[in-house]
């Protein structure tokens, strides 16, 4: 189903790694809804991963950029402005990485070099990306920027470890930059707090399958899929959400407002 609500819009989707990536669903949906897009990932992921074949499938360009490097982000934004022949309308930041989680370091035994890298890739990069766009006037008036987050920024899920701290920072940057970008170009900046999804990044969390099932049973509507998230991102990029900014919006089937469900309580009677 398509209503072409992004017809005439142009945007960049960062974080397409493989078919399971949330960003891949969003890229496909944006195209389906009539947008012109560029997809991006770290140069190594572009060179050795599936990104190019995915781009070929939906006929969009790929531009490599390490989100921690300002020079890469400047090149990405310059190339995008050239390709779109002017400023673009939306950006998705769908990027996260933690070597402490990958290497199974407990939260009480963090490697701090890894932690700084986690914060840089998963949160500070959002500021870098916004600052580059801001200084280059690269986002059109009333543009929309979205980054993806998880409720562990506010409530503790032990296995989510330092990524919880990265997500808190990411949400803070969204609010802080949202004020400045609204004043300059009416650009809106939001984070979407999504249900768990089985992806490369998600799957790195210890016990992910049990965690996914728990979340599904604690969500009155069940876990939201990445396809549904893609539809919501499209809504956020469209002109139907022009006055939503500096928000963290839950797209989680009701999980964030639920204390207990019959499904979960029944497991204690087994
Ligand atoms: N999967 C979940 O359960 C879930 C839930 C809520 C939020 N999120 C968030 O959604 C976003 C996308 O994650 P995903 O689950 O689709 O996993 P994913 O592994 O497919 O995506 C993460 C992306 O980050 C990219 N990346 C890592 N380091 C980078 C760098 N230096 N420069 C550029 N790109 C880099 C990876 O290549 C990858 O494409 C993340 O922010 C994640 O925290 C995921």
Describe this structure in words.
It contains eleven helices and seven strands. It is of the alpha/beta class and 270 residues long. Helix 1 links the parallel strand 1 and strand 2. The longest helix has 24 residues. Helix 1 crosses helix 10 and helix 6 packs parallel to helix 7. Helix content is 46%, strand content 16%. Strands 3-2-1-4-5-6-7 form a seven-stranded parallel sheet, sandwiched between helices. It has one domain: Rossmann fold (3-Layer(aba) Sandwich).
Show the helix and strand layout.
Layout: E1 10-14, H1 22-32, E2 36-41, H2 43-48, H3 51-58, E3 62-64, H4 70-84, E4 88-93, H5 99-102, H6 112-135, E5 139-149, H7 163-185, E6 188-194, H8 200-203, H9 208-218, H10 226-237, E7 248-251, H11 262-266
Parallel strand pairs: 1-2, 1-4, 2-3, 4-5, 5-6, 6-7
This protein binds nicotinamide-adenine-dinucleotide.
Question: Which stretches are poorly predicted, pLDDT < 50 over at least 5 residues?
Answer: none
**Distance between the amino and carboxyl termini:** 42 Å
> From the helix content, strand content and strand pairing, which structural class follows?
alpha/beta
Q: How many structural domains are formed by the residues?
A: 1
Helix content: 40-55%
Q: Mean pLDDT across all residues, rounded?
A: 96
| The CATH top-level class label | Alpha Beta
Q: Over all CA atoms, what is the radius of gyration?
A: 18 Å
Beta strands, count: 7
Fourth-tier CATH superfamily name: NAD(P)-binding Rossmann-like Domain
Largest sheet descriptor: 7 strands, parallel
């Amino acid at each position: 189903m398509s209503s072409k609500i992004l017809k005439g819009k142009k945007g960049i989707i960062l974080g397409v790694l493989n078919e399971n990536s949330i960003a891949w669903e969003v890229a496909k949906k944006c195209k389906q809804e009539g947008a012109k897009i560029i997809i991006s990932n770290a140069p190594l992921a572009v060179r050795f991963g599936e990104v190019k074949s995915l781009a070929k499938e939906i006929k969009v360009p790929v531009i490599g950029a390490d989100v921690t490097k300002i020079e890469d982000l400047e090149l990405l934004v310059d190339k995008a402005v050239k390709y779109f022949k002017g400023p673009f309308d939306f950006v998705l930041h769908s990027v996260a990485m933690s070597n402490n989680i990958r290497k199974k370091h407990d939260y009480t035994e963090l490697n701090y070099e890894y932690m700084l890298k986690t914060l840089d890739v998963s949160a500070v990069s959002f500021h870098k990306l916004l600052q580059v766009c801001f200084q280059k006037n690269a986002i059109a008036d009333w543009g929309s920027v979205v980054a993806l987050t998880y409720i562990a920024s506010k409530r503790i899920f032990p296995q989510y470890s330092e990524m919880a701290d990265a997500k808190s920072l990411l949400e803070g940057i969204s609010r802080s930059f949202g004020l400045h970008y609204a004043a300059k170009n009416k650009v809106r900046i939001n984070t979407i707090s999504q249900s768990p999804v089985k992806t490369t990044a998600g799957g790195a969390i210890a016990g992910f399958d049990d965690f996914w099932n728990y979340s599904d049973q604690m969500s009155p509507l069940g876990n939201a899929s990445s396809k549904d998230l893609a539809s919501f991102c499209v809504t956020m990029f469209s002109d139907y959400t022009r006055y939503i900014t500096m928000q963290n919006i839950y797209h989680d089937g009701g999980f964030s407002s639920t204390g207990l469900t019959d499904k979960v309580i029944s497991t204690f009677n087994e």
